[in-house]
Sequence to fold (408 residues):
Amino acid sequence: MVASGKQSLCMEVLRSKYKVKKDWLRTKLSKFASPTWHAIEKAKKLIEKGACFLLRDGKSINVWVDPWIEDFKPNPRIDDYLQLPIKAHHLIDHTSKAWDEEMGTFTVKFVHRVAFTQVCDGSPVNSLWKNLWKARLSERLKMLLWRIGANVIPTGENLQRRIQHIDSICNFCDTKVESNIHLFLECHFARALWTITSWGIRIDTTPLTSSKDIIKLIVNPPNAPIPTNEQWIVTLNMALIIDEIWNSRNLKLFQQEQANLLNAKHRVQARFQEISKVFASTIYPTPRSCSTSWSPPSPDHIKINVNAILNSSKTALAVVARNHHGKVLFVWGKVHQLCPPLQVEALALLWVVHLAIQNHWCFVMFEEDSKICIDALDHPIQTPRWTLNTIISNIRNLSSCFSSCNFC
Ligand SMILES: [Zn+2]
Fold:
């Protein structure tokens, strides 16, 4: 009675006195428990045999660990499912007030629904899965990563665990057992693809020992040298590499297509460009337009104004060079691939420095809207973004080619 959820003054007093909560049946004995309570705990096994929750809304009954069906305890086919906090509530069709028969089969859709519901409810869930469902990735990529992290993807090793006499050897190297770690990180094809497409992240030097470690790295990539607001780019790139490895493996296994590293690299890069445009357009605001007031440079100087404009799919760079009379000397424009605004502003500045050198101008002033870029040129050590470091350094080196050069 004390362990039940029954509400009454008497029960509240007893619960308060004995510190018994509703999950008493599945919690361990406190090390500070009194000798009397130690004796009471011995009865727990006996109570467990006969205890059975009465089903109401099902929100507090964990279907894997709580006794809620008489003389029956469900066992998941895969141990990792135990980590999914599936409640009896999830198995009920709340419109018809009957068991949801669609839930009779344990589908990926169901897992996604449960995990998503948990996130929305704000209930405590494994933060890894919570972050995965929130990641800026397509639903298909998220599901692939979840299947890898939960170790339910049909690799040779996983298939052999369930089906005897099946070949578990990796199809790429024909030597090692095809586990998640081997297929996605260690095999020669995976290592080569990570090396040429992961922007210098040495996956083979990162200590990863389990399937969940792979997903942890992808969902929470290392902080340095990437700022937090750009980590989604790394996550996306890594997820696409994983997806490409899995697709190449399937094509080789089922259609006898030889894996081609360069083609795989190009597919990862093309998909990255395509998907990042979609997400970037919702993340990066269009930079403010250039200032409307223009002041002339000092005599003999040429003032070059540069501006970058972003829309949802591409970036346009525009440059105007004028002398101290305000006369337009040159106008340039070009389209650039979509990337974060700061990076575009810095690249635009680098481009106009090149243009000025090509035109043999010695006394120049460069004017740009991005205060961060201009500050970074004055104080390179304080450069705030890892993506800017190389560009800023190149601009500074090239600026020594001019007799007089100012950035404002
Ligand atoms: Zn292999």
Remarks:
- Strands lie at 92-93, 98-99, 302-310, 314-322, 328-337, 363-368, 404-407.
